[in-house]
Amino acid sequence: MTFSLKKSNHFYLYFHFCSLLFSPFIFLPILIVQVEAHQIRGKVSIQTRLFSNDPIHSGQEDHSFSLTAAPEYFHQFDNGSLLTFLPFIRVDATDSERTHFDIRDLSYIWSHERFELRVGVRKEFWGVVESLNLVDIINQTDLVESPFGEEKLGQPMVNLSYSAEWGTFDFFLLPYFRERTFPGKKGRLRLGFVVDTDQPLFESAAEENHIDFAFRYFHTIQKLDIGVSHFVGTSRDPLARIGIKDGEFVIRPFYEQISQTGVDLLLVIGNWIWKFEGIYRDASVSTDYFAMVGGLEYVFDGIGGTGMDLAVFLEYLYDDRGDELSATEDDFLVGLRLAFNDVRGTSVLVAVTQDRDTDARFPVLKATTRLSDHWRFSMEYRGLMNQPSEDIFFDLRDDDFFKMELAYHF
């Protein structure tokens, strides 16, 4: 659950939990060390999403309008430790479930020689490929922010890191589980039945208080980056169970217990970049499976004497569960990324994912540029074409959309 503003009881419970978790590590250092530096920055934005087709589910709209605020606060002490606070809020005029508040980061970071301790709510990213970061499992997906999984919720954690000449070891204790966010009845990019986030189901009797654990080893050998990870705990990917609310059928998200081992590799040779991510997941309720993404990228430096860089990439996605349980069971992605390298930070990305077994494809276009020192404009198009009835994205088949955002950075 992100905290839909109407779910104030959840917010206060979560805030109280965070306060208990942080207080020994944050407020004591504030009392005993002298402040050295602090910084406040962030952005506020206006965003609209326009859908090119009429909705197919009752209650949906063909557009949305929202406002966001994402301030960032950094506080450094003279002993080198750091306090960070990154809240996020969106107010959406159409979908009440998309109106929500989240703490993306509220953490205290302390380091000494080869050790670093990070305590609080944080986002921890793992992964190297462009299309789908299979190994990235620590944080929950914020689905109302990004329907294709790029945005994540803050995760309460204690993270101890040890660095040596032969690699970096990260140990994670995750004491509180974050439920996934889902669009409401009026929201687009949702399933036929609304997901009822007020009636979640858990395999563990501890429910969201189940303590999860994770480990990652990372090392660079010349031009090769190697990451090996293992996770044990509550799955971030819920299963669907049918329920009833207010006399209507709904989907109740069910969170099972899993263990997952992952490997990510990145090899850079000249202008070539080779990438791989693979996982094996052992699930207690659903099917055990293997999935992988592998590919390559080539960067053309200063094309045509313009100073612009063009990256061309190709990736293959495989999941042995099949297309009824996975959207990427046998697909490939091809795309390019153009960096203008100008003072405005202009960039354009164009890509398409093609299912090898059907005509289904997912085109994407992203472009962004800075209008001035403080203002930035971004545009994104996402398409869902030729979805077969057995595909898990079939309910989204008419949800192609354009997203435009005007952001003020301070």
Could you explain how this protein is built, in words?
- The chain is mainly beta.
- It has one helix and 22 strands.
- The strands form two sheets. The protein has an 18-stranded antiparallel barrel. Strands 9-13-12 form a three-stranded mixed β-sheet, with no helix packed on it.
- It has one helix at 8-32, and strands spanning 3-4, 35-51, 63-77, 82-92, 100-112, 115-122, 155-164, 167-174, 201-202, 212-221, 224-234, 239-245, 248-255, 257-269, 272-283, 289-300, 309-319, 330-339, 347-355, 361-370, 375-382, 401-409.
- It is globular and about 60 Å long.
Name a few traits of the molecule.
410 residues; mainly beta; Porin; three-stranded mixed β-sheet
Broad CATH class: Mainly Beta
Number of helices: 1
Q: Level of helix content?
A: under 10%
CATH superfamily: Porin
Distance between the termini: 29 Å
Largest sheet data: 18 strands, antiparallel, barrel
What would CATH call the architecture? Beta Barrel
- Secondary-structure element order, as H and E? EHEEEEEEEEEEEEEEEEEEEEE
Count of strand segments: 22
Oligomer: single chain
